[in-house]
């Protein structure tokens, strides 16, 4: 496969002859067939154990059987399922979609089966990459959000320290206890300085030059 | 402030002071001492100590700071209400009234008082709270 990675594929079909054909096609496309299943009763356990990247489920003799296979795989591993039909069946496709099927291929012409599966699996790999990029981006955003929130909480703690110290200073002043008032004012000054230092550090880490920061911290001329 | 005179009491009402700032606790003790109808029965530096002290002393009034370590005032409030059901809980905090008053009153506080209030206002709010039933809220007081 050019530019795509090898997928670990589970194939399932009630018809064992179709299962063999499907295995050859998938292997021929450079993917690995990690399990072949016929029975609904086994497919859930195999899916849970093998954790395939994708499952190909063929519509065999019984449409209901194929739907049960899809339900079992989707429920067990959240593994995307691609359905294979020999002829288009709208009602069945609707039911399969309701059960969580990712895509379907109509393989009425066996000679086209390989290219149909190839294209679908390539699209799936692209989808997986986009999903991966999307998940990574989401994780980055979540980490950035957490960092910002931690910074805000630290600043809130410092701000509250200023309020506490000024409250003590004010109450002490009202009670004519000037020494305690002075001590509390010095504490408030200390806390305020810590807030300014932290802001300078944060902005400095973001690449803002010190000269700019000093200029910004000066009062604006009216 | 309701303007109602507090009822005559045989003994001064017990006040529990809960604040993580030691200087603030000392000053509040002085403020409470301004009124002959009040006296301090205990002090606590966090929410856990506040609950222990309230259970032990059954104070008539609890002055409760919100931003405290270990267990803050907001977290301790429901348990304070439970262990000292007769206490009037006055939340005394540096947060602006508009930010937290509704929430603390909903949790069972009797009143909310911003830090920065004049000592006379603090005493008046405590005495006003004593004139109410333990669960009724009294009008909020802003700093003088």
Work out the helix count of chain A. Answer: 7
Task: Identify the biggest protein-protein contact and residues per side.
Answer: A-B, 15 and 14 residues
Shape of chain A: elongated
- Biggest beta sheet summary of chain B: 5 strands, parallel
Helical residue percent band of chain A: 55-70%
The number of helical elements of chain B comes to 5
- Any idea what the radius of gyration of chain B is? 13 Å
Between the first and last Cα atoms of chain A, what is the distance in angstroms? 68 Å
Strand content of chain B: 15-25%
Strand order of the largest sheet of chain A: 2-1-3-4-5
Report the structural category of chain A.
Answer: alpha/beta
Please state the average pLDDT score of chain A: 83
> What strand line-up does the widest sheet of chain B have?
2-1-3-4-5
Order of helices and strands of chain B: EHEHEHEHEH
- Which whole number gives the mean pLDDT of chain B? 86
Largest sheet of chain A: 5 strands, parallel
Count of beta strands of chain B? 5
Query: What's the helix-strand series of chain A?
Result: EHEHEHEHEHHH
> What radius of gyration of chain A results from the CA coordinates?
32 Å
Describe the structure.
The complex is a heterodimer of chains A (222) and B (144). Chain A is an alpha/beta fold and 222 residues long. Helix content of chain A is 67%, strand content 11%. Chain A has seven helices and five strands, in the order βαβαβαβαβααα. In chain A, strands 2-1-3-4-5 form a five-stranded parallel sheet, with helices on both faces. Chain A is elongated. The mean pLDDT of chain A is 83. Chain B is an alpha/beta fold. Chain B is 39% helix and 19% strand. Chain B has helices at 22-33, 47-57, 73-83, 97-106, 119-130; strands at 13-18, 38-44, 61-64, 88-93, 111-114. Chain B has a five-stranded parallel sheet, with helices on both faces. In chain B, β3 (61-64), α3 and β4 (88-93) form a beta-alpha-beta unit. The longest helix of chain B is centred in the N-terminal third of the chain and has 12 residues, at 22-33. The mean pLDDT of chain B is 86.
């Amino acid at each position: 496969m050019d530019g795509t990675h090898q997928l670990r594929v589970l194939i399932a079909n009630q018809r064992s002859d179709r299962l063999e054909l499907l295995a050859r096609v998938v292997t021929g496309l450079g993917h690995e067939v990690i399990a072949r299943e016929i029975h609904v009763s086994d497919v859930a356990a195999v899916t849970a154990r093998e954790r395939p990247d994708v499952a190909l489920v063929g519509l065999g003799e019984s449409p209901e059987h194929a739907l049960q296979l899809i339900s079992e795989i989707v429920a067990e591993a959240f593994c995307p399922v691609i359905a294979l039909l020999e002829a288009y069946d709208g009602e069945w496709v609707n039911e399969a979609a309701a059960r969580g099927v990712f895509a379907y291929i109509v393989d009425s012409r066996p000679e086209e089966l390989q290219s149909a599966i190839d294209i679908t699996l390539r699209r799936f790999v692209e989808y997986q990459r986009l999903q991966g990029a999307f998940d990574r981006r989401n994780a980055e955003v979540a980490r950035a959000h957490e960092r910002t929130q931690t910074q805000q909480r630290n600043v809130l703690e410092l701000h509250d320290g200023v309020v506490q110290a000024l409250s003590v200073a004010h109450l002490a002043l009202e009670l004519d206890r000037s020494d305690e008032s002075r001590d509390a004012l010095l504490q408030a000054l200390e806390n305020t300085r810590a807030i300014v230092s932290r802001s300078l550090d944060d902005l400095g880490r973001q690449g803002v030059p010190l000269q700019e920061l000093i200029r910004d911290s000066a009062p604006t001329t009216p | 402030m309701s303007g109602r005179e507090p009822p005559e009491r045989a003994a001064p009402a017990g006040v529990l002071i809960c604040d993580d700032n030691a200087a603030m606790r000392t000053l509040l003790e002085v403020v409470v001492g301004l009124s002959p109808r009040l006296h301090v029965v205990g002090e606590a530096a966090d929410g856990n100590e506040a609950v222990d002290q309230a259970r032990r002393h059954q104070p008539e009034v609890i002055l409760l700071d919100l931003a405290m370590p270990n267990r803050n005032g907001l977290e301790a409030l429901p348990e304070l209400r439970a262990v000292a059901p007769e206490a009037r809980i006055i939340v005394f905090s540096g947060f602006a009234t508009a930010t937290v008053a509704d929430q603390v009153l909903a949790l069972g506080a009797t009143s909310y008082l911003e830090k920065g209030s004049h000592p006379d206002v603090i005493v008046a709010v405590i005495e006003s709270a004593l004139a109410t039933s333990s669960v009724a809220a009294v009008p909020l007081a802003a700093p003088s």
